[in-house]
Specification:
The radius of gyration is 17 Å and the shape is elongated. Helix content is about 50%, strand content about 0%. By secondary structure, the chain is mainly α.
């Protein structure tokens, strides 16, 4: 284990022993506030994809990373201690719905 990782884990354990930590909130609802179009979800990377991808919030990590980063920043600004990844449906089964 790297020194940096060991330090982060030690800091997390210390914080947990001192107070209740707050985890970020719903990613999907925050994504919906951006009123994204099919083209927004596709970005340039999936512009020619042969299947609709609108609604695939996990895809935005690749096509609109600034939006996902902005949502994470909002949660940090609101006081979240822990951020979850934007991978709620990043499974083979779920992504098959979008032809991915």
């Amino acid at each position: 284990m790297t020194d940096e990782r060991s330090t982060r884990i030690a800091n997390l354990k210390k914080s947990i022993s001192e107070r209740i930590l707050v985890i970020d909130g719903g990613m999907g609802t925050m994504i919906q506030t951006h009123s994204l179009t099919e083209a927004d979800f596709r970005g340039t990377r999936f512009a020619g994809h042969n299947h609709d991808v609108r609604g695939n919030g996990d895809l935005l990590t690749l096509t609109q990373p600034q939006i996902i980063g902005g949502i994470h920043a909002q949660y940090l600004d609101a006081g979240a201690d822990i951020l979850l990844t934007n991978t709620f449906s990043s499974t083979v089964v779920a992504q098959a719905d979008y032809g991915l």
